[in-house]
Every structure is written in C-alpha cells, then in structure tokens.
Design goal:
Layout lengths: L2 E2 L14 E3 L5 E3 H4 L4 E6 L5 H18 L3 E7 L11 H11 L5 E3 L4 H6 L3 E2 L1 E5 L5 E3 L18 H12 L11 E3 L5
Parallel strand pairs: 4-5, 5-6
Antiparallel strand pairs: 1-10, 2-3, 4-8, 7-10, 8-9
Length: 184
C-alpha cells in the first residue's frame, strides 16, 4: 500500500452537498449532518491500517465535537469489487461493533470523494458554521500505528478553535493514509 498525503487546506472552499445512504438504513445529506458550529467530513474505510490505527480516538473526538456543535460524518468511497472488506454489509457491522457516533455513508459512484478532492483514508475536512473549509490536517501523530496516549489532539484542537472562532489554525500537518481505491 502506498501512503499518500492530501494537499494543504484550501481555506474558505465551500463544502460539497451530498445525499448518500448510511449504515443506519437512512439517507444523509450535508444539511442533515452539519452542526450549528460546523462539520467534520471524514473519508475512511474498514480495511485501511491507518484508519484502524486512529478509529478509537476518532470516535472519542467525534463524541466530544458533538458537544461543541460540530457535526461529524464518515464516507466510504473505495471500490468494493477490489476491496470487499469495505462493502456496505461490512461497513454496517463495523459501525455497530464500534458504536459510531456519526453516520457512516457509502459513496458507491465515488462522485462525492472526487468532488471533495479526497485522496486517502483517512482524509479529514473541517468546516465552520458557514461550511467553509478551515481544516485539512491529520487527527494526530499516528501513522500505521496508534500514537502514544499523550499525543496532541491536533484535529480536535483545530475543530474546537473553528467552533469558537470560525477559523482554523494557519499551520496544519497533512493526514497520511492509503489511497482511495478508485474504480477502473
């Protein structure tokens, strides 16, 4: 697996609307996922070792972000023919096992991932209350292995700042992860 880093934050870029099915049997949109102070859009998948390394802390952070008025949503855009572990039935099982506190959506056509410019899993997009991009960085210092328990909560701190001020930090460190598995 090739590790990729997404580009730096394109401050102010508007969030792209979506309407996707979730593991909960419901359809979710940009409007239904946002919180009053912003939105975190995460591109993740089941099989990626980078996602597996951060999933517990990601769940913790999303629970706490809800209390700050930041909505969270996870989108899976991989080609499931090539990566059956990421198929909707497995997404549903994983979301239930880990009690995801956010909708986990399936982007079958990969149109949403393309519209956002997602390049890897995990790839994080943090928006303010006006749905303007303010964060495109990493969760923390994790790579393929979990960071130490005392690792700085970079994404959480950035979104906390966005919730309070509407602006993300000027300095951001890109996430790292496996490439989105594009359909051929």
């Amino acid at each position: 697996m090739v590790a990729l880093n997404p580009p730096v934050c394109d401050f102010g870029r508007p969030a792209v609307d979506f309407d996707l099915p979730g593991t909960d049997g419901q359809r979710h949109t940009l409007a239904s996922c946002r919180g009053p102070n912003g939105l975190l859009v995460m591109f993740i998948c089941n099989h990626c070792p980078y996602v597996k390394a951060v999933i517990d802390r990601l769940i913790r952070d999303c629970r706490e972000l809800a209390g700050l008025g930041i909505g969270c949503v996870a989108i899976m855009s991989n080609d499931i023919a090539a990566y059956p572990e990421d198929a909707p039935e497995n997404m549903k099982r994983w979301a239930a096992e880990l009690a995801f506190p956010f909708p986990y959506l399936y982007d079958e056509t990969q149109a949403v991932a393309r519209a956002y410019g997602a390049v890897c899993t995990p790839d994080f997009f943090g928006y303010n209350a006006r749905l303007e991009l303010q964060y495109r960085g990493r969760l923390d210092a994790s790579g393929r292995n979990p960071a130490p328990p005392d690792a700085k909560r970079e994404m959480f701190a950035a979104l906390q700042q966005i919730a309070a001020s509407g602006r993300g930090p000027a300095e951001q460190i890109a996430s790292i992860g496996c490439s989105i598995k594009w359909q051929t």
